[in-house]
Amino acid sequence: MIVVEQLQKSYQDASGRAVSALHDVSLTVEEGEFYVLLGPSGSGKTTTLRAIAGLEHPDTGLIEMAGEAVFSSDRGVCIPTERRPIAMVFQSYALWPHMSVFENIAFPLRRGLRRIPAADLRPRVERAAGLLSLQDYLGRSVSQLSGGQQQRVALARAIALEPAVLLMDEPLSNLDARLRSRLRVELKELTRALGITTVYVTHDQGEAMVMGDRIAVMEAGRMLQEGKPDQLYQQPGSLAVARFLGDMNLIDAAISGQRDGVLEVACAAGTLLVRGETASHARNVTLGFRPEDARLATAPQGHTSGLRATVKARHYLGPSQLYQLDVAGTPVQVQAPKHLIFAPGATVFIEVDPHHCMVFETTPNT
User: Fold this and answer.
1) Scanning 30, 70, 95, 328, which has its CA 20 to 30 A from the CA of 197?
2) Residues 264-307: pLDDT tens digits?
3) What phi and psi, each to the nearest 5 degrees, are found at residue 314?
4) Are residues 215 and 323 in the same domain?
């Protein structure tokens, strides 16, 4: 449904110097897919979304929708936003405060290139409102609605256009945590039921994991890695992705041996085994493992690997305990069963299955 190839975009700063916002960004979104652009502020995710929408004019590259070029620097093509088969939902909702819910949803259907016959207007608006549970609020002013209800109006307005592509720029970021958690599930189910191809921008890692069929992690205008949520979480391709996506313990280490596809990775507190290929042929690496993949013990178990640690603090999470540990001067977190209790100051040993350990080449760029 969407093809983006080698998109470049730069701006001028206050001194007139060119600042690059996008570096050769390329991606493909399949029909009906929920595709998430994830990254911190300034990563280029919103610029990419706005370029797809036609709200930003890239310097070079190609953007296709449903097989048709909507932007091509080589061919001199730039289809305006209103002629692209899209609808967009903004972070700010962008509602008309003096209008009713009905009129806000109906507005783009009354005006512009995608206006529809008057006889079709009310059924279209009521259908979109019903999908977002707004049918009882159509006569109200949007200023009388809660933040969650206003966001539903913005979504209903976009869905009423029956777009081939739905673009969303952090649409849930202004809502409280509980409402955001509920709406992200409802939104994913709604777009799937309607079969709408969706590109969604967020800086929230949990939101991306819940909603995305595939996720593209961006940083400094570049695509770092793309894949399904479980692939990115379990197999981050770089130290930058590992740092950004979920909680990851990272320890400076060195490869001390390798045998039968298993690396022996040593640090000041001990040794862990890592199954898989080494990060290039680097000797000095960063050892990584997630808090939920580690186990705590009072003593080394036989001849298995492990790291010696000191308990700094324990936090009760209900179904589990979160331990903050010191591993030879490096802070580490381990999630343990709720019945496993260690007091601050206690010495423990961290064990990690070789399949759940990772090594990353340490370079100046990471």
Assistant:
1) 95
2) 999 999 999 998 765 545 578 899 999 999 999 988 765 568 99
3) -130, 135
4) no
